């Protein structure tokens, strides 16, 4: 091999290693931003971890591969990353948002997709981030997708996200019991907001293991190693 060609290949390999290193550093920053969203909302510590656990358990019950489950867990951590662009006056407002504020809030899935898009390692989860606020009846956002048009992993995240929101305290209400939360999930499935078949499956999982609620397993710890 000519020396010049060997040197060229060496430079390419060095650049690829540098790009990989930079990508990992950027990914680390994005993950840190995601944790800042969790802290800003004053959510119960470990909320995103439990969300990922619940979503992964539902995905596992559907026969998903480990690769799919890892994508689902990571999407649970990053699904609200777009809220970093939402002003605190809107993000932390205790009352109902007005029409203009609501429209700004509704942009966060698209913003989140844009934040994560440059990283090749995050591209598989972009549809989950973008579509986690769609509804199966087509009334969700940002694209008004209907039924099976919504990616399965996004539909799984929706069920787990609503459940976790209901069983945690909020400024305007106390946490619900897991039985109460499941009843609301069933109602939202009946309304056409959530995938009713996934709600049914989630309910079955939560009633297993001696009728105790789904418990988290801290599966996201590896992302902070």
Topology:
Layout: H1 3-40, H2 47-61, H3 66-78, H4 88-91, H5 99-105, H6 108-116, H7 126-131, H8 152-166, H9 178-191, H10 196-206, H11 208-211
Helix pairs in contact: 2-3, 2-8, 8-9, 9-10
Could you please describe the fold and organization of this structure?
The chain is mainly alpha-helical and 225 residues long. It has one domain (3-224): Orthogonal Bundle (Hypothetical protein af1432), CATH 1.10.3210.10. The protein has 11 helices and no strands. The protein has helices at 3-40, 47-61, 66-78, 88-91, 99-105, 108-116, 126-131, 152-166, 178-191, 196-206, 208-211. Helix 2 crosses helix 8 and helix 9 (178-191) runs antiparallel to helix 10. It is globular. The model is unreliable at 209-225 (pLDDT under 50).
Class based on secondary structure composition and strand pairing:
mainly alpha
CATH class equals Mainly Alpha
Average pLDDT taken over every residue: 81
Number of folding domains?
A: 1
Number of continuous helical runs: 11
Determine the strand fraction and express it as a percent band. under 5%
Distance between the termini: 41 Å
CATH topology tier name: Hypothetical protein af1432
Shape: globular
Stretches where pLDDT is under 50 for at least 5 consecutive residues are 209-225
Compute the gyration radius: what is it?
20 Å
Work out the helicity level.
55-70%
Number of DSSP-assigned strands: 0
Q: Sketch the major β-sheet.
A: none
Please give the CATH architecture: Orthogonal Bundle
CATH superfamily heading: Hypothetical protein af1432
